[in-house]
Amino acid sequence: MRRPEFRRTDDADTEASTGRLAGLRRRFGGVFALRPFLLAVVLSLVGLVAGGSIPVLGAVGRFVGIALAGFVLAFVVASRRYVEAGLAGALTAGVGFVMSAFSTALLPVVADYGIQVAGIGTTAGLIAALLGHYFGRDLRAGLTRELS
């Protein structure tokens, strides 16, 4: 008995498409997806604000919030979306880090070292989001694996 062949609809759409972006979609379609990225940005913003609002943790709480956002994204989406999680975490942390420096008395420091300040925030956000995403996927894999 022959098994039926199934084709994903998005593959068929990109193969049939002859637009400008059809070639890019075929090459990079599995690397980056917009919807999980937007979800990751929203979760990272919520984590950044919620973590930063805890007075005891201060600035570290922001990165804990971003890590929790990556964790939730991995646990809910259940696919390898490291690019989206990392990019969203880096973007929100970098912007949040610079904005917090602008709102404090560190304005002369930001004026002189703005790129470095943004780089530190971006790198820390990237690492936090990727670690959170990794541990979220690991927990989901452990919870859904059959015991033998």
SSE arrangement:
Elements: H1 9-16, H2 22-28, H3 34-52, H4 59-77, H5 82-103, H6 107-144
What does this entry look like structurally?
The protein is 76% helix and 0% strand. It is an all-alpha fold. The chain has one domain. Helix 4 (59-77) packs parallel to helix 6 (107-144) and helix 5 packs antiparallel against helix 6 (107-144). The relative contact order is 0.13.
User: How can the largest sheet be summarized?
Assistant: none
Low-confidence stretches: none
Mean pLDDT reading: 80
Q: Helix share of residues?
A: over 70%
Number of helices: 6
| Tally of distinct domains | 1
Shape: flat
Structural class: mainly alpha
What is Rg? 19 Å
Beta strand %: under 5%
Distance from first to last alpha carbon: 31 Å
Number of strands: 0
Quick take:
With 148 residues, this protein is mainly alpha-helical. It is 76% helix and 0% strand. It has one domain.
